[in-house]
Structures are given as C-alpha cells and as structure tokens.
Amino acid sequence: MNRPEDEVLRAVTVDIAQGNARGIASIYNSAVAAWAIAAAWEIGALDELHRARTLDTADFAERNDLDPQSTTGLFRALSAVGLVHRDGAVVHTLDAYDDMYRNKSFFHWLTRGSAELFRQIPSVLRTENRTGEDRLRDPAAIAYACREIDQVTYAPTFWAAVDRVDLPFTRVADLGCGSGARLMQVLDRHPGTTGVGVDIAQPSIDVARKEAAEAGFAGRADFVQGDVLSLEPRPEYADIELLTCFMMGHDFWHGGRENCVATLRRLREVFPAAKRLLIGDATRTALPDTELPVFTLGFELGHDLMGTFLPTIDDWESVFEEGGWKLVRTNRIEMTVGEVIFELA
C-alpha cells in the first residue's frame, strides 16, 4: 500500500527531473540563440526590430531575398530564450530584448569571429597542438564585432582620455586598428589631423581602406599591414605624436613579461615623436564562476585556448616604467572583461 509520503517523494522526484530537463534544454537552446542573435544582427533584422519593436519575418525575408522559413526560425530561437514573443511569422520584443541588443556584438565575437576556435577545442587542448591558435579566428568578423564592443565599453573613457592630452597633435597612429573605426573617429573630431592604422590581418586592412574611402578619409588615413609586436621604423611613423592601442595589448605579453617590456620599448623607437600612448584592453578577472557577466567566460576561455596570457591591472602597471613610459592615469572600466585604459607619457 502506498503511503502518502511515498507519493510526495515521487512527485518531488518528477519535479526535479523535469526541472533538470528544462535546465539542460535551456543550455542547448541558449547556444542556438547565440548564433541566431549574431546572424540576425548581421542581416539587419535586429536593428529593424529594435526600431519598430515588431517585425514580420516573412516580409523581412522577402525584402532582403532571404529564405522565409529559416528567417522565422532565427526568431523562434530568440523566442525560445525569452527575447521576443512570436505569433507565427510576426515577432514582438520582450523586456529582455533591449539588454540583448546592447550586447549583440559580444555574441557576434563568439559565434562569427571565434567559431572555429571553439569548434576545435578537443584538438586545441592537446599539448602537441598548442602552437598559438589565433589562426582559427576570423579577423574580419572579429573587427566587425570589436567596432561595437569598443563603443559599448571603451568609448566614453577613451574620449575623456584624449581630451586630457595636454599637447597638440596632428599625427596619430592606431595599433591593431581592425576596421579603422577608431582612427577615423579621431580624425573626424580633430579636423587638422592625419593618421595611420596598423593591423596584422590583411582582411581588416582591406575593410579599413574601403570604409575610409567611403567616409571621405582617403587623403587623411593610411592603413598598413604589420605585426605590432615586431614593427620596424617607417617614414609614416616618424612624426606620430599620439599612439592608441585597443583590445590587443594582451598580445604584448606573448612569451612573458620580458616580451611586453620589449614591445613597449620598441614602440618608443619606432614612433620617436610619440608623446602619449593610450592602451585600452581587457584584463584577467577574478569573479566567481557563477557570477560571470556576458562575454567574460568566452573571452577568457578563448584566450586560454589560444595560449594568450591575460595580464591583471597590476601586471600592466609593473612594466610601464621599465618599458620607457610613465603612467599618468589608470582608468578602470571593468564592465565585462576587466576593461581598463592606461594613459602613458
């Protein structure tokens, strides 16, 4: 004969099992939704929905020559994780949509820019394969995402730092320039300036040149393919007065602290007229595993997989003097990945 407490125990067990199943489904559906967010942003659907708050996905697909069933499927993925409400092909934003929209570039960085790196985790984990895995990332997609990541995280603090530069400058260089957005923004705010962007990835340089020409900066902005970690002097570097370097400073630490010091010293030699250097980058966080905000886990695991050392703020502050620079100010942002901007003289 079944006792009442047995029935209660069975009911609790069923509830736990169903809850676990729902939780596991949420993990899987969230992974699919991450890809859908990146794709919907790239095709312009996220922006249109953000403006109008409602979107007929079938109509959007027809206007943009897209497969209607697949386009609706993208938003089914967003509906599954509570970002939109879907009524057939028509979707409406929910409260969580705006927060996702502010963070959409982080999803693009993960799924479009770093997809192959994460796909190859079983191989990358093996000791014999750990030869630096940055080649597994898509530099053009990374540059696309980082343009907005920069605006979300660094931009307000960066412009405050530029405004504090107390020496006039007419020549600026952006190291690790990506799509060239930062350099063009500086030139736009300072009409008398010219500058050069340097990036190791030729696809990013191609994008930067194209966008600079379209924006009317072709005569003021030059872009050079080169490895910031091993630059050699060039005529266009000789008169640079302001150096900026964002979202790649951790690469200075490849090979250890000594390499970072050497890179900082080399920048003094390659850019002899430089009076200011602004370095903005992520730093290693110390947050509990269950309290990580968006982007932190993907960024830190991704760089662990690539064998890239992520310095702390203290690590950085210990190398500047030895590298030939004076630390003027440390600007802690720390929104997602311990972001910081160092002002150096």
TrEMBL record:
<dbReference type="InterPro" id="IPR029063">
    <property type="entry name" value="SAM-dependent_MTases_sf"/>
</dbReference>
<dbReference type="InterPro" id="IPR041698">
    <property type="entry name" value="Methyltransf_25"/>
</dbReference>
<protein>
    <submittedName>
        <fullName>Class I SAM-dependent methyltransferase</fullName>
        <ecNumber>2.1.-.-</ecNumber>
    </submittedName>
</protein>
<dbReference type="GO" id="GO:0008168">
    <property type="term" value="F:methyltransferase activity"/>
</dbReference>
<feature type="domain" description="Methyltransferase">
    <location>
        <begin position="172"/>
        <end position="267"/>
    </location>
</feature>
<dbReference type="GO" id="GO:0032259">
    <property type="term" value="P:methylation"/>
</dbReference>
<keyword id="KW-0808">Transferase</keyword>
<dbReference type="InterPro" id="IPR036390">
    <property type="entry name" value="WH_DNA-bd_sf"/>
</dbReference>
<keyword id="KW-0489">Methyltransferase</keyword>
<dbReference type="Pfam" id="PF13649">
    <property type="entry name" value="Methyltransf_25"/>
</dbReference>
<dbReference type="InterPro" id="IPR036388">
    <property type="entry name" value="WH-like_DNA-bd_sf"/>
</dbReference>
